[in-house]
Amino acid sequence: MGLKKEEKYIYKYEACWSDGNNPLLCLNTGDWRTSRPVINNEICNGCGICMTFCPPQCISIKDDYFLINLGFCKGCGICAKECPKKAITMTQEGDYADDCKI
Ligand code: SF4
Ligand code: SF4
Questions:
Q1: What is the Cα–Cα distance from 21 to 40, expressed in whole angstroms?
Q2: What is the pTM of this model?
Q3: Using a 6 Å cutoff on CB, does residue 83 contact ligand 2?
Q4: Where are the domains of the chain?
Q5: Which of 72, 94, 77, 82 lies closest to 38, judged by CA?
Q6: Which ligand is nearest to the CA of 76?
Q7: Ligand 2 center to residue 26 CA distance, Å?
Q8: Domain 33-92 classified CATH 3.30.70.20?
Q9: Among the ranges given (10-19, 39-48, 64-73), the one the predictor scored with the smallest mean pLDDT
Q10: pLDDT for 21-34, tens place per residue?
């Protein structure tokens, strides 16, 4: 059974062209990531190209800074590839293993 129009996009960070009916969009797909994008705000010029190209639309802007929702970022590296200022560096996810310690 199809969802009503207002129910279709179940997560605010997913793009309008994502399949909002797909249950995978409910998962914390950031767990799949092996590389983590890191934005250098000293270099970033605020063009927003990374936000436009990110397939799951998990880059947002807050207080003039671009933020990456790591809960959904897949680590594909497209944002880093498209950034005209080379302000995004893809880093090894293993470098953040300490983040998981309780
Ligand atoms: S594409 Fe690069 S320069 Fe443009 S907003 Fe994103 S990080 Fe900043
Ligand atoms: S690495 Fe891919 S999924 Fe993650 S923020 Fe960049 S474009 Fe989006």
A1: 35
A2: 0.76
A3: no
A4: 33-92
A5: 77
A6: 2
A7: 17
A8: yes
A9: 10-19
A10: 555 555 677 888 89
